[in-house]
Amino acid sequence: MITGGSNYITIHGDTENPVIGTYHLFADEVEANLNAMFEHGQRKIALVCWYAPLNFPAARDHRWHHVVDSSGGVMFEQHQQNVIDLLNLIERTGFNEVHFRFAAQGRAAVSQWPAWNRDQFTENWAFIDSVRNLVNDHTSLKIIFDLALEHANEQIDTSAVHQLYCRRLWKLYTDAHGPDDSCAFSVIHGG
After folding, report:
1. Distance between CA 154 and CA 148 in Å, rounded?
2. What is the pTM of this model?
3. Per-residue buried b or exposed e for 160-180, using 16+ beta carbons within 10 Å of the residue's own CB
4. Rounded to whole angstroms, what are the CA distances from 188 to 51, 89, 96?
5. Collapsing DSSP states into helix, strand and coil, what is residue 6?
6. Which residue stretches of the chain are H helix?
7. Any idea which of 57-61, 120-124, 163-167 has the lowest mean pLDDT?
8. How far apart are alpha carbons 97 and 91 in whole angstroms?
9. Residue 105: strand, helix, or coil
10. Is 169 helix (H, G, I), strand (E, B) or coil?
C-alpha cells in the first residue's frame, strides 16, 4: 500500500497565511497540523511557494496575501528561514517525501505575458534555482520539484509564450540539476 499526502499550503485555510510566508508566526500550529496528518497515515506532503516580485507599499514583510517576494530572484531571509525550519519539522515528524511546488503569480506568471518577457523569465529562473538549492542544502528528505504549478495544461499547445517558458525553464533546470528530482510541470485535475 502506498500512503498518500496533502497539499499543505495555508494555515487556517486562509490565503492570508501561506505556510511558507507565515510559518514563523504559527510554528506551534503547523507542528500540530503536521502531527495530525502523520498520525492519520500521511507520509508525503506538498508545499506551494507562490511568488512574484513585490515592490508596492501594500506588500509588507515581503509578502502580499499568499505570495512571497521574488524580487531580484531571491527569497527574503525570513521566508528562507521558514523553508528551512518547515523542512526540518516535516522530517522530524516522519514524512518521507516533499513535493515543492513553485507557483508564479502576478507579473511573474507567464499567463499574464502578452509577449515573451526575458527579464521576468530570468528573475523567475533565478528564484526557482536559488530556492531549489536552499531546499536541497537543508534536508535529506526526498524532494520532488514542480517548476511551474499546473503548467502542463492546454496553454502549452495553444500559447507560444507559455510553451517557450516551459521549454526554457525545463532546459535550464535539467542543465543545472538533471531531471531526476523534478516532475517538470504538474497538471491540474480535470485540466
Report:
1. 14
2. 0.93
3. ebbeebbeebbebbeeeeeee
4. 18, 28, 24
5. strand
6. 19-22, 27-39, 77-93, 118-137, 155-158, 160-177
7. 57-61
8. 9
9. coil
10. helix
